[in-house]
Amino acid sequence: MNADTIRIVLLCCSWPVILLRIPAVRVADQSLLWFTLVFQAIGLTVLQAPVMRAIHDLTGVPRIESLISSLLASVVTVFLLRVALRISSPDEVSARWSRRAALYCAATIVTMIVMFTLVTTQHLPTRERFLPVPGGFTAHTVYWIAYLTYMVVTTGATAFLFWRQILKVITPVLRVALVALAIATTSFLIFLGLRVAALFSTASLLPELGVYVSSIYSIGVTTGCSLAIIMPLSRSVAAWWRANQLYSLWRALYDALPQIALHPPRSRFVDALMLRDSRHRLNRRIVEIRDGMLIMREWITPVAYERIVEAMPDEAAATACWLKQALNAKAQGEERVAKPLDLVRQGGVDQETERRWLTAVAKAWASPLVVAYNAPTAAEHSTNVRY
Known about the structure:
This protein has 387 residues and is mainly α. The protein is built from 15 helices and no strands. It has helices at residues 3-20, 28-46, 49-59, 64-88, 91-121, 139-165, 172-199, 205-245, 247-256, 268-273, 278-296, 302-311, 315-331, 351-365, 368-374.
């Protein structure tokens, strides 16, 4: 696979993520990654042969596409440094060094534009990839010194910060994203070393090798930023799916105990279409189901519960079963038991384990065994004796 093909593949991956995650602009932790990916994608677009020809034809300035590509790379680098600072330093330190990095980037960009203008107006000779002709010190040399110095300093600091943070990241997806960014910035240092060597050598191997090394950088940045940006969306989708798994159980409890819900439920179809605030909705649903279970245990007798435990294969099925019986008892107007059993001791120690437990109960809620057990009249499986 050649470098052009790699760029096309990366563009096909980058732009859908950028468009899908436009809302990330409003989130502080996501906006830097989003803008990094945007400038990275624009830079890859500029490197496409048709785009380079179009830019050259439109401006009429020789090698203008090289300047644009380098400027975009400079912006990507400073955004990556700001990302690294944000995840590795306190807010005050991160903000201070981010401002300094931004000023350094702006000064480098101005220097590059001025030097490029001098190279163009003075018609200085250049080599392939806008490299200077060895043996002299001109505006073109200053251009490359300013660019490479800036890139080495910022990329080196970024790579160091990324590698230092990898073991501190717990989330697997974020760790993979961070490893991708660390590998990318490290490989870019190798690319910059090849560029420095190319300033003093006319060997064609150095620029060609640099193209493939820079492809590693492009792949790493695109992968790392995309994973980090997509993760909140994937979490929202997962929360939406999990909230829908709990809908039937939650709705049955709401119909019996409307006071448990902060907001009245929508129909199953409308609820399934609600994609916004899915994580908040899932949290509320877990809390409201637990509140409903605490109340409904007051309608289950010890005798009925013992029979359920004997008939059910596991505690999730037993919980679903006694909830159905309690709902039936309440609907038939039976009195509450004097001393409710402790039937809600099962569950998780945190939100995730609690969700897994309630999901198991919700699955058992619709299982054939639980449905069959509660299909006859309540009198066949319960008792009117109150303790």
